[in-house]
Structure formats: C-alpha cells, structure tokens
Amino acid sequence: MDIREIAKRAKVSTATVSRAINRVPTVDPQLAKRVWKVVDELGYYPNTQARALVSGKSRIFGLVVSEITNPFFPEIVHTFEELAVQGGYEILLVSTVHDSKRMRTSVRRMIEQRVDGVAVLTFGMEELLVDDLHLRKVPLVFVDVGRDVPHVSNIRIDYQHGIRQAVQHVAALRHTRIAFVSGPLRLPSALARKRAFEDSMAEIGLNVDSELLVEQDHTMEGGMRALRQLIALPICPTAVLCSNDMTAIGVMREAYDQGISVPQELSVVGFDNIRLAEFMIPPLTTVDMSQTELARIAFKALVSDISRETPAEHGTEYQLNTNLVLRRSTALAQSGPPRHKSTKP
Amino acid sequence: MDIREIAKRAKVSTATVSRAINRVPTVDPQLAKRVWKVVDELGYYPNTQARALVSGKSRIFGLVVSEITNPFFPEIVHTFEELAVQGGYEILLVSTVHDSKRMRTSVRRMIEQRVDGVAVLTFGMEELLVDDLHLRKVPLVFVDVGRDVPHVSNIRIDYQHGIRQAVQHVAALRHTRIAFVSGPLRLPSALARKRAFEDSMAEIGLNVDSELLVEQDHTMEGGMRALRQLIALPICPTAVLCSNDMTAIGVMREAYDQGISVPQELSVVGFDNIRLAEFMIPPLTTVDMSQTELARIAFKALVSDISRETPAEHGTEYQLNTNLVLRRSTALAQSGPPRHKSTKP
DNA sequence: CTGTTAGCGCCTTCAC
DNA sequence: GTGAAGGCGCTAACAG
C-alpha cells in the first residue's frame, strides 16, 4: 500500500496526496479531506525511507552516551526522546562503551543512517567522532569540549559553581580532611571537577594532601575501592566528595561494609544528582547537574543548527549550571582527634 | 557521494560495486578489492534509506519498554543493542509511558520506519500494539502475554520459582506476618507475581491477611507509601516482599525515615535483581529475573521469526526462570510479641 | 490549486 | 562474472 493506492482511491494525483499528508496549506480542503479519509481507512503510513531518500533528510538524530546502564543517562535519553518525538524526529541511540572499535562502528551507523545531527553527551571527548561527522557537515553538539571546535556547538558546564558550594558546605560542617574521588582524569569533565574541587579548597585556605585525591572510574566499584584506599591512610578523611553519584554510592556501600556510619563518622557528597540519590540510605547530598536540562539544551542546539541554512562557523556555546542539593549524607565533623585506621579487626 | 561515484572511480558498474559491498561471493576478488579500495579512500558509506527502500527490509527492530528511566530497562536496552549492532540491526527505542495516546504514536513511528520486528518488553500487555502491527505481518515477541496470540512469540516467566524461594526463605527466618507489595494488578506480570506469592504462602500453610496485601505502582514512591500503610496496621508485618526492586528500595527508604532498621526490625525482599540492588544499604535480597537473558531471548526470537520464511502460525514460546539471590536485607524475625504500631511520636 | 514527471541511492532481475 | 536498466515510495519542480 503506497501513495499511489491512496491517490487512486481518493481520485487525485500522488502529488496531491503527498501535499495533503504533509499539510501543505495550498491544498483544497475538500481534496485534503478526501485524502485523509482514505488514509485513515486504509491505515496508511508514509514510508520514511522513501521520504528520507528523496528529501535528503532522515529526521534522525544520533544520541551518543557512554553507557545506557549508567543511571545518569536514561533520564537524558528520556527527555531527548520526548522532544524528538514531539518534533517528528527519531533517535539513533549509540553507546560508546569507551571502546574505540565500538566507536568507529557507531560513527558508521550514524553516517549510514544519514543522521541529521548528533548530540554527544558522553563526557569522553570522543574526538574521532567529530572529524568524520563534521566532514559531512552534520550538526554536532558536545558537552565540555575543551577548545573551540569550529562548527560544533558546545554545552559548557559550570562545575565550579556547585562544587564550591559542596566544599563550603562540608567545610562549614568543620571538616578539614576532605577527600576527593575523581573520575578518569583523561576525561575533560572529570578533570574539570577535580580542578573545581582543588580551587574551591584553596579558596578557603584548606590544603589538600595528594593522598586524599584518589582517581577512580566513576563506577560504584570504583567508589568502593576508593574508600578502602582512603581508610587505609594514617589519618582518615572525615568527608569525601565524589566526582559522580555512582562513586558516592560505592563509597557509602563500602562504608557500610566497613561498619563506618554515614554521615556520623563520614560525610559523603556526590555529583550529578541522579534520581536514585534521593533514595539512598542516607539520602545523598549531591551537586545537581540537571539531566533533563542537558538533554533539552542539546536537542534545541541541534534543531537550531539545522534550521540555520548557512551553518554558523562558530558553533554556539550553551551553559549549564550546577548546584548543591542538601540531603542527609553529611554531618558535623566529630570533634576530637581524627580516627586512625579502621577499627575493624 | 554515491555508488555511482565509486563505480566510476573503480571502473566497474554500479552493480558490481553493490555486489562487492554486499560481499556477494561470485564477484571477482580483483574487482572487489578495487572497489573496497575506493570505498575506503572516499569514506563511502551506503545509504540505508535507499537500501531499505529497494530491499523492503529496514533492518530496524522496534524495542518497546515502559520507561527507560526505570532501572530495569537500561540493562535490557544495552544487551539488545549489543546484539542488534552485532547483527547489523538498528533499534527504534520506544517508551510507552503507560499512556495510550503515546502508544498510538509509538505504533505509528514503528510502522513508518517499517521495522522488521518488534520486541515488547513492557509487562503492560499493550494489546493495541499487537493488532496494527500484526496486521502488517511484523514479527512480534511479547513478555507474559496471557493467552496464545497467534503469530506472536511469547516469553513466559516462571515467577513462581523465585517467589516460592523468597517466601520459604523468609518463612525459614521465622517470619509469619509477611506482607506483599504488588504492582498494578491490571498488569498481568504484576498479578502473576502476587498470585505466586499467595500460592507459595498457602503451600506452607501461612495465611495472608488481606491487609498485608497492598497494591502499588512499582515505583520507589509507591514503596514508601506501602510501608507507611503497613506500619499503621494494628499488627505490623515483620517482613515485606515486593513486586519489584524499585518498590523494595522505596520500602527501605521509608523504613529509614521511620527509624525502622532493616533487616533487624524488618526484612525486605525485592524482585528483578536490578544492578543497583547489590549496592543498596543493606544490599537487597531479591529474586533475580535476568534482564540480559530476557533481552537475549527477545532478540533471538525476532531473528528466528524473520529467518523463517513461512511465518509459523503459533508464535514460539520461550521460558525465563527466576531465582532468589540472598543478600543482607533479611534476618531472623525478632522473638517476642510483634511490634505494635510505629514507636515514633 | 492540481497533475505530470523526474529522480533520490541502491539492489536485482535479466541479458551478455 | 559483469553490466544495463527498471523500480522501491516518495517529493519537488514545473506545467497547466
């Protein structure tokens, strides 16, 4: 069943059917109605492939995330999808899994599908991605890309704002030995968070021993490892800030295993504010970086890039702020001398 | 840049290019090599739209989930995607959001994209979906569809197996007042879980007061509400089994708020075994229903449906088992009389 | 305002 | 084993 079938039954030309379906205003309402009647009766749905082929527009956006199983991303996918559907777009969801072979595959997939734009919300600076896509003039929006990549829009995140709040909050609670568990420092976003932490500490005159800076991988297991490492220190930290919520969850879990109570004996702060943070025990104090807002910005960026017929040579810059959300995983530092080593057998 | 361009440069016909690219074995290796050389040099990628149009195969599978933000699903999406990419398929991810308008949109999207098959892993018995799709002879695989829908494959889940284990585990811990927080009972899967609970209780001669059966919505908030309702009872349960992990997380969170300690004062068991369950505090004892396995079965079902030229008139039946995973959210029931009401002010 | 027509990029008979 | 040609379903000129 195709447009010709409809045309025949509605006794009009295929061109008219096409116009009616696409709601071209110049079509006679009478005819349009006749067309729609047949369309509805037959349950006709236009073939997007044919449409895409002739129009040169696939109406598909690539959405690149690190791993859909990381709770940070589903919210983004959800919002992005919402907007896409609303705007008549489909999404080609791609996970890079931090694997370069996989990433080449992803690029291939996106090009083969002739995506109309790509949002890379992956915090991994997947540069390889850029060139190939950019070559084909596909609108791109990134997060945290360092330098000004021409023609590529960028969502810049103000890590400093939220992280400073977190540091000051913890400091106000009289913590002085404050640890920071970072993500992989080769990721610009992870590096930026760590920098923001250091700067914020320096700002209030707290020094941060290098032993209190542990690099991990943004996973829960990483968080567990980090805490194990920290409590093995001669003088343990009384508070630990984490580069993301997953890490913080891992830290809390390890604290539980070690019999260290949060927040009484150890204050924990996360970053991202994934939905689950609120349901942790205790509910996690964390820095909010709105996933829905991020998705919204990315989507809009793409749409506006597309509607701009002459591609701006400087990709647009967008901003996303971060903010501390107080919950119950932080508390006043215990007075008295810092606890030495784990008291467990 | 298209197939003609390649043909010209490789000094062969477009037919040969097409054959080379599609690895038709009868093509002269010499020519094939020449073609591939040009393809690689130019970074040519075939246009899937054109391919789909002419072949009648989109190589896209629809994957319908309830909500990607429900942690149960990302794992499924991940595995399904893995297999899809491996098999040269793309995924059209669709969330139904339990909204019928939205669901019609989803059907439209899938038909417009001419998906080659649809996996409905949504536990919602979205019947509307079936007819329209089935009419177009799109292979379908469902979870827990009640009756035998012709031509539709079905993954049947053995809830009884895991839930019986859970009940017996809790009973062995000397609990007798055992509550069950179900999902929306209009969902076949939720109903089946509740039934499995009741049957398992009956089997060991434990009776279940209707006041201990609370229906909720499979969300964390629902879990919180459920526990609030349960502790308001004249005689509180000492253990609560939940229809899914999200609910269990909500229950634990509410217990925390109420100052009830898990597992000492209240044992909690979940269902699904989402990855997070292991990282809860305390780690959640739950019934495992493998998300990866589910995705794997669904994918294979679709592929095998497609490869079967003459569609079998009875959709195939698949099986997925469930199993209790012991962690630390259950403990011996406290001896002495059951606690009356909440002891909080 | 409507119809006719020429492709969009590719695959696939069919001759050779 | 290779090439020429037709057509997949639709849209976008261009005539009328």
Give an account of the 3D structure.
Two copies of one chain form a homodimer. Chain A is of the alpha/beta class and 345 residues long. Chain A is 43% helix and 17% strand. Chain A has twelve helices and twelve strands. In chain A, strands 2-1-3-4-5-11 form a six-stranded parallel sheet, with helices on both faces. In chain A, strands 7-6-8-9-10-12 form a six-stranded mixed sheet, sandwiched between helices. In chain A, helix 5 links the parallel strand 1 and strand 2 (90-95). In chain A, helix 1 crosses helix 2 and helix 6 runs parallel beside helix 7. The radius of gyration of chain A is 26 Å and the shape is elongated. Mean pLDDT of chain A is 91; it is low at 338-345. At the A-B interface, helix 4, helix 5, strand 2, helix 6 and helix 11 of A face helix 4, helix 5, strand 2, helix 6 and helix 11 of B. Chain A binds a DNA duplex (16 and 16 nucleotides) through residues 2-4, 12-19, 22, 26-28, 31, 46-47, 49-56.
